[in-house]
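Supplementary notes for students who missed Thursday's class. We covered one full example, reproduced here. Read the sequence, then the structure, then the short commentary at the end.
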Amino acid sequence: MEVVTMISFVSIISLSVSILFAFLFGLFFNNSKSSTTIAADPLPPGKMGWPLVGESLHFLWAGWKGHPEKFVLDRMAKYSSSVFRTHLVGEKAAVFGCASGNKFLFSNENKLVRVWFPSGIDRIFPSSTRSSSEEEGIKLRRMLHNFLKTEALRRYIGKMDHMAQLHFAEGWENKTQVVVLPLAKDYTFQLACRLFASVEDPQQVDRLSKPFNLLASSLFAIPIDLPGTPFNKGIKASKIVRQELVSIIKQRKIDLADGKASPTQDILSHMLLTSDENGKFMQEFDIADKILGLLIGGRDSASVACTFIVKYLAELPHIYDGVYNEQMDILKSKAPGDSLNWEDLQKMKYSWNVACEVMRLATPVTGTFREAIADFSYKGYSIPKGFKLYWSATATHKNPEIFPEPEKFDPSRFQGAGPAPYTFVPFGGGPRMCPGLEYARFEILVFMHHLVKRFKFEKVIPNDGKFVVDPMPIPAKGLPIRLFPHQN
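Structure (token representation):
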């Protein structure tokens, strides 16, 4: 759900042209209200890189080469294992790449740090300018809590199962070869449309999907609003999607008034009928904006996880066999035609361990930004107010001191109590932990069940393990595979 905060470094570099050379290298203590309390502490060690661009290109290059953690781990080894200083996306930055840093940042959300949104995001989500990001985040999380908690989601497992059956019947069956990434995006987008807003008509989903693809791409484009640029196309696409959502919202109001829709059927109904502490209800435009953000978060992160699950199952036959055997045991315990239910998902322990190991090795959200809202000290170093703070999930996940043999695929890491707190963080942590964690777990497990019960598969390009991070990890060629249906 934090995908919106992971804006491409290339996109933001274009905003830094007007920053003065002296500012790039830091006049860090100007107007500091509490400088006397941190004057004795030095800034974190590190270097600022080239004028204007800092070390952004080095960071990008590590992602393009498929090893985003290398930028962080190399500098942690050189400067400090806790935090180092650099210059990214036109901003002075401190980078955290360890479990203690994750804990510190997550625990101090809206106390010492807050989420940071680059300015270009306001063009895609205009309502975000009407109040602070903290206020918007708190409001949305309060609304989502009741809908996305485990007890509430349990009643949607049957719908997830039904939609997964349709997805595989239409996109996978009777085919000898498919490309996984676009199919995974279709699956997660259709599911998000259905469960968040009860949109299931194929034509209506298609009207949302086409401009939505342009919109999602624009979040990571250079924020130059000129005709023909990806950013300009994205702004136009966002208006089209929002208009479609507003029409859906208007119809839902009518259906709720006429008793044709249920107050608890989805997040959209919940948003329409839930007021804030002052008794005010959200406007249609703002609800459309929130649904739009949820659709982005609901599609992209889970689709990346599903895609890489297919990749590793294709590469590791013994892991595939373990998942297949577990899913077949569940299938044998059910009557023909029965849908998956809560008890079935609870039995998928090995499958979920596999999914977690996939997300450790190919973390959908590699990290996100925060901003220091006060001067503070951390591990003997001063972090001035205004510094941007980047926490790296991939650096934690690939740290050999935390995960021995970090490149080895080993689902047993997640048996029992699993990894230590703050070491496995694909969903963030603290007040901003992704509220859709359980939703993602359900849709991923349902996907795995229907995948392995139907097919064995192999990569079309056997030795091509290349993936790029832009800003999420994706297989360079979308992961084409050959399908071998099981003979039942």
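Commentary. The chain is about 50% helix and 10% strand. The first strand starts at residue 83 and ends at 88. If anything here is unclear, bring it to office hours.
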